């Protein structure tokens, strides 16, 4: 799918052996200043070592699973043998400015396996965000398909896509995107509030709250539960956003059901 | 859950939205106040109208009246049974009333009603509106010695005797002066002054020819062998509507005073048509025995009540052959629970218009145009006031649009976290609903408190502005009547909430339709 006219000059081959070079793609020639990461399996952020954002534009590859995981490395199959969690084929997307069509993505293929860490690197305007929006079902591709856990997801009805985003995907945005009216713990609880109706949320509120507190403690904000976003620093806000992305991804869930998580993390460019 | 949390949080952090509901609040309060005052006025008017008129009136088309009264009454009693609680017969005719005041004759048009003093009070609140306490218990067409309402001033036999004495004294003086001036050349003409004329007994009935008498048109030949003594005798009694003889006027100092042109104890002259064709004008004198004050100016300024039997006799309504006396109307009082319209229809079927010369109407039919006008007024006023709330709705609409635009990014976040569109919509709709609830509840409390204290507020406004809010020369009420109808309040509050929700639906819909990528683009 190499297309020299495309703003995306990279190719996203589904190389089964590839860990670092193949699953990360430079979206532009020249030096990349942005890094986008996808983490599958939710394990990347477990424990105090979630030094995922090492900031390097060249970040790519899989997190050292064996070192950080509770699970012994030996029990995990090799990355290339793990099932494909997220796959897209021939994704194209154009934006329309008046009468002029601006092509952004021209047939992007990508395959991400369970537990794999992928960074998408590219120049600004190269379509990184657009790709992630399409993968996260926030937008429709003009053509091409997105598959998640073997099922096509880009053509799902809106309610199913909402459910998918709420239950299976966790997103962390470059600018945190916390709701300014809610304090840290409420922001973390937000996905569960969306997931459950008022009554079910009320009945589950104690364990949910405990989980949110745990997550905030995990990201080192156990002492700032009731602080509003404007009372937090940029980094702290980012950590709240990470906790929010993990809110509905329970341990039990990913152990028994591998569909549990897919976390998209957008690392700040700076 | 998040909808509720965010709606409450927005409510607590966006005071501008609270400001936008002040208009809802004021609209609701105004509507409650206006409606309860209107309802109060209407109820008061209904009460009075109903108190004046009996439930159902069977009226003869002609002024000759219904002669077969006994048969009709028997039929009515048989038909209505227990529903019938009171029945009276009466004569309603137009008449012209004259009385002397300040050297001239004051003329008034009146509706003369011949009533049976024993039964008339049983069909309406008639006795309640009389001013003498004894008459309120049982009407008598005989003049009372005294004991009239103190605001009338001197009234009754005492007043009559004083007046006659002073008139006679005055006349004697005139004659003396005239005699001394003329050197006893000319005999004084009796009744040469208008006032003096009033004091001259003129009998009871006169023929038309006497109308042309130069000095006193009512002057009649005195009964042979009997000289009417005003000092000790009275003409047949008459009860006058208070406004016929009373002028209410505002003084220079702002106080309101009543001027009585005639009082109980004074005599009045009536001219009315006789029965028969063509009608002849019949004149007769009556003595005012009481006033009637229903506080409905239309009635107070036209009603005059006299004894039924006297009127029948004067108008020639007694059939010399059968001895039966005719009446022009039969008035019925029904059981409280009785459906007036149903009874009316039953009676109409009993006395079909093709055969009988009666018009059968309920009191509401008789006052139809007035009641309809009041009803219409209330409706129009409500429509206008509801527009105030609609304007408030547009305020909410504009504010919400601004808030939705301000919250674009938050909406994007919520959608990216998987919030469904209807969930996002619910945030803004419940926000609007909450504003509506807050606005209309506060408005309701405000309105109700205002209504409870409306008279104090009126007094305070009077004190503040120096202007009389409730002009007693215009209204007979001294307090503003109000009725708080829970049903009306309920509708107003629900209507306001509905408008608030309606105003928030479009902005909410816009928020729900927002594309998450578009909403998050400006990051």
Summary of the model, kept short:
Chain A has 7 helices and 9 strands. Chain A has 270 residues and is α+β, with helices and mostly antiparallel strands.
Tell me about this structure.
The complex is a heterodimer of chains A (270) and B (523). Chain A has a five-stranded mixed β-sheet with strand order 1-5-2-9-8. A four-stranded antiparallel β-sheet of chain A has the order 4-3-6-7, covered by helices on one side. Chain A has 270 residues and is of the alpha+beta class. Chain B is α+β, with helices and mostly antiparallel strands and 523 residues long. Chain B has 18 helices and eleven strands.
Q: Give me the number of helical elements of chain A.
A: 7
Instruction: Give the integer mean of the pLDDT values of chain A.
Output: 68
Fraction in beta strands of chain A: 15-25%
Low-confidence segments of chain B, given as residue ranges, are: 191-217
Question: How is the topology of this model organized?
Answer:
The complex is a heterodimer of chains A (270) and B (523).
Chain A: E1 25-26, E2 35-40, H1 65-68, E3 84-97, E4 100-113, E5 117-121, H2 128-135, E6 143-148, E7 151-152, H3 158-167, E8 169-172, H4 184-195, H5 198-218, H6 234-246, H7 251-256, E9 262-266
Helix pairs in contact in A: 4-5, 4-6, 5-6
Chain B: H1 2-13, H2 15-20, H3 22-52, E1 56-60, H4 69-80, E2 84-101, E3 104-115, H5 133-137, H6 157-182, H7 194-199, E4 237-241, H8 242-245, E5 246-250, E6 256-260, E7 267-273, E8 281-292, H9 297-300, E9 303-307, H10 308-315, E10 329-334, H11 340-350, E11 358-362, H12 363-366, H13 368-406, H14 408-416, H15 421-452, H16 454-465, H17 486-513, H18 516-520
Parallel strand pairs in B: 3-9, 4-8
Antiparallel strand pairs in B: 1-10, 1-11, 2-3, 2-7, 2-10, 4-9, 5-6, 7-8
């Amino acid at each position: 799918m190499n297309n020299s006219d495309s703003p995306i000059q990279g190719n996203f081959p589904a190389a089964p052996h590839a860990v670092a070079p193949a699953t990360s793609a430079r979206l532009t020639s020249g030096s990349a200043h942005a890094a986008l990461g996808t983490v599958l399996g939710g394990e990347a952020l477990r424990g105090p070592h979630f030094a995922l954002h090492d900031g390097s534009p060249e970040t790519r590859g899989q997190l050292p699973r064996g070192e950080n995981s509770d699970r012994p490395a030996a029990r995990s199959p090799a990355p290339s043998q793990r099932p494909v969690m997220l796959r897209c084929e021939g994704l194209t997307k154009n934006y329309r400015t008046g009468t002029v069509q601006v092509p952004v993505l021209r047939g992007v293929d990508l395959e991400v396996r369970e537990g794999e860490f992928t960074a998408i690197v590219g120049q600004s305007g190269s379509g990184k965000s657009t790709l992630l929006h399409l993968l996260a079902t926030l937008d429709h591709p003009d053509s091409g398909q997105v598959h998640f856990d073997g099922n096509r997801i880009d053509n799902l009805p809106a309610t199913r896509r909402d459910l998918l985003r709420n239950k299976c995907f966790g997103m962390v945005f470059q600018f945190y995107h916390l709701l300014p009216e809610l304090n840290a713990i409420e922001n973390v609880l937000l996905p569960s509030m969306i997931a459950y109706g008022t009554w079910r949320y009320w009945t589950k509120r104690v364990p949910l709250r405990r989980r949110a507190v745990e997550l905030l403690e995990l990201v080192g904000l156990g002492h700032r539960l009731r602080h509003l976003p404007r009372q937090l620093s940029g980094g702290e806000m980012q950590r709240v956003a990470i906790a929010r992305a993990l809110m509905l991804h329970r341990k039990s869930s990913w152990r028994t059901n591998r569909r549990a998580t897919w976390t998209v993390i957008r690392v700040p460019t700076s | 859950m998040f909808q509720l949390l965010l709606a409450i949080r927005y409510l607590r952090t966006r005071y501008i939205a609270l400001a936008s509901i002040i208009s809802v609040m004021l609209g609701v309060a105004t509507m409650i106040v206006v409606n309860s005052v209107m309802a109060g006025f209407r109820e008061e008017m209904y009460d009075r109208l109903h108190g004046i008129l009996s439930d159902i009136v069977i009226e003869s088309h002609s002024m000759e009246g219904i002669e077969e009264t006994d048969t009709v009454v028997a039929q009515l009693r048989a038909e209505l049974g227990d529903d019938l609680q009171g029945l009276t017969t009466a004569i309603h005719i137009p008449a012209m009333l004259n009385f002397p005041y300040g050297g001239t004759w004051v003329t008034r048009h009146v509706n003369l009603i011949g009533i049976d003093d024993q039964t008339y009070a049983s069909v309406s609140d008639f006795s309640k509106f009389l001013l003498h306490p004894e008459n309120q218990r049982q009407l008598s067409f005989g003049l009372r010695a005294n004991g009239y309402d103190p605001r009338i001033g001197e009234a009754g036999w005492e007043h009559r005797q004083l007046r006659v004495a002073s008139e006679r004294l005055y006349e004697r003086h005139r004659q003396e002066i005239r005699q001394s001036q003329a050197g006893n050349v000319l005999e004084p003409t009796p009744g040469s002054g208008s006032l003096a004329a009033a004091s001259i007994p003129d009998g009871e009935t006169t023929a038309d020819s006497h109308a042309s008498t130069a000095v006193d048109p009512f002057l009649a030949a005195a009964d042979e062998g009997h000289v009417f003594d005003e000092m000790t005798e009275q003409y047949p009694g008459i009860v006058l509507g208070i406004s016929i003889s009373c002028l209410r006027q505002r003084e220079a100092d702002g106080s309101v005073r009543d001027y009585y042109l005639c009082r109980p104890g004074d005599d009045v002259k009536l001219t009315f048509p006789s029965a028969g064709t063509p009608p002849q004008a019949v004149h007769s004198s009556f003595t005012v025995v009481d006033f009637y004050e229903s506080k409905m100016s239309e009635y107070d300024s036209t009603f005059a009540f006299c004894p039924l039997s006297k009127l029948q006799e004067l108008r020639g309504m007694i059939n010399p052959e059968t001895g039966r006396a005719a009446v022009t109307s039969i008035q019925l009082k029904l059981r409280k629970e009785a459906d007036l319209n149903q009874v009316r229809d039953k009676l109409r079927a009993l006395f079909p218009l093709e055969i009988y010369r009666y018009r059968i109407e309920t009191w509401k039919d008789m006052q139809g145009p007035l009641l309809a006008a009041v009803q219409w007024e209330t409706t129009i006023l409500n429509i206008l006031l509801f527009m105030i709330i609609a304007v408030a709705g547009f305020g909410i609409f504009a504010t919400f649009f601004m808030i939705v635009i301000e919250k674009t990014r938050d909406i994007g976040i919520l959608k990216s976290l998987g919030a469904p569109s209807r969930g996002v919509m619910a945030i803004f709709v419940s926000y609007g609903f909450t504003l509506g609830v807050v606005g209309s509840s506060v408005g309701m409390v405000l309105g109700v408190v205002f209504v409870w204290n409306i008279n104090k507020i009126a007094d305070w406004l009077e004190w503040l502005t120096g202007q009389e809010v409730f002009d007693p020369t215009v209204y007979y009420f001294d307090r503003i009547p109000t009725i708080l109808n829970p049903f009306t309040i309920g509708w107003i509050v629900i209507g306001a909430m509905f408008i608030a929700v309606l105003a928030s639906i479009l902005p909410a819909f816009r928020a729900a339709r927002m594309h998450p990528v578009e909403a998050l683009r400006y990051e």
